[in-house]
Design brief:
alpha/beta, Rossmann fold, Dihydrodipicolinate Reductase, domain 2, 6-stranded parallel sheet, 10 helices, 14 strands, 25% strand
Length: 322
């Protein structure tokens, strides 16, 4: 195998800029076909992005003999189904986060990848970006000393009409905005500090705008007794959004936003900004690593095993598992 020939299942908004174009930009990779149940939208996407083929049926894309890599970019309720179908067709899978509706589905996906000897990577793509690689480097070098604690807060105001979107329908998304956004943050903690030792949390529906919970808090202990506290508030006030994570060590702090740009380091009372180049396609660094992994030229940038741990954290925090 010299090239990954991709097919995208679910060519919706996430694939327009964040991921889709990157499949034609990284070495040894080409986007061959896209699929969406609305055939007209699939055709439109293919024409705009110069993709040779389009489908309105996922099975047809999965069984296209020219395709050897499947990117599953649908809502989480179909991740397991499409992933298993791809494995049965002998094809490697790059699946969007969250990996599945819950950790039970995620474990079945992991087990299926082993059963069918197919490769599986999960799109926790921030761990491949320069900003977070630099933060990990600083942590590993003990630039701010031994890590003591991590405090994270994400506060967002409800957007008009959000109650009508799939992201706040737990039957489709697994939860609400927490399940959409927290996987990135929790995966970064796993990437930085390893598997958690203890996880507990609470979630509730405060505003009552939709079925999913809109306020979540957690306390997690990682190795070396690193204490993590997180709050996700999706009932916040307009124009007062907050996205902040502060990693505190014995010599200083690293403060950064997960979903926006700010990042700075403080050592001995002196604060300096950390700046990084703009990424036109935020998934491109991860997709390049996934292609290398699928071709046997590099490690898995985000394994199913790691993604299962993230799903288990989500389930534990929201009370889906005890």
């Amino acid at each position: 195998m010299k090239k990954i020939v991709w097919g995208i299942i679910g060519c919706g908004n996430v694939t327009e800029v964040k991921s889709g174009p990157a499949f034609n930009l990284v070495p040894n990779s080409i986007l061959h076909a896209v699929m969406r149940r609305d055939g007209a939208k699939a055709e439109d996407y293919a024409k705009r992005h110069h993709v040779p083929k389009w489908y309105s049926d996922a099975d047809q894309l999965i069984n296209d003999p020219e395709i050897n890599g499947i990117y599953v970019a649908t809502p989480p309720d179909s991740h397991e189904d499409y992933t298993l179908k791809a494995f049965k067709a002998g094809k490697s899978v790059y699946v969007e986060k969250p990996m599945a509706l819950n950790s039970s589905e995620a474990i079945r996906m992991l087990e299926a990848s082993k059963k069918y000897s197919c490769k599986l990577s999960v799109a926790h793509y921030r761990r491949a970006q320069p900003k977070f690689l630099e933060i990990k480097r600083l942590i590993d070098k003990q630039t701010i000393g031994n890590i003591v604690s991590v405090d994270l807060k994400l506060s967002l105001a409800p957007t008009p009409g959000i109650e009508n979107t799939w992201r706040v329908n737990p039957d489709i998304s697994g939860g609400g905005n927490f399940h959409d956004l927290a996987p990135h943050q929790l995966d970064l903690m796993l990437f930085f500090f390893g598997e958690p030792v203890h996880v507990e949390g609470k979630s509730s529906n405060i505003a009552g705008l939709y079925k999913a919970d809109d306020f979540v808090s957690t306390d997690i202990t990682f190795g070396n007794n690193i204490k993590f506290k997180g709050i996700w508030d999706f009932t916040g006030h307009p124009n007062k959004d907050e996205d902040i994570c502060v990693i505190t060590g014995t010599k200083g702090q690293i403060s950064f936003a997960v979903f926006t740009d700010p990042c700075e380091i403080t050592i001995n009372g002196k604060t300096e900004p950390l700046t990084f180049n703009f990424l036109p396609h935020v998934q491109q660094p991860m997709i390049e690593q996934v292609v290398n992994y699928f071709l046997g030229d590099g490690p898995n940038p985000c394994s199913a095993e790691d993604a299962v741990i993230v799903m288990q954290m989500l389930d534990k925090i929201t009370g889906k598992i005890s």
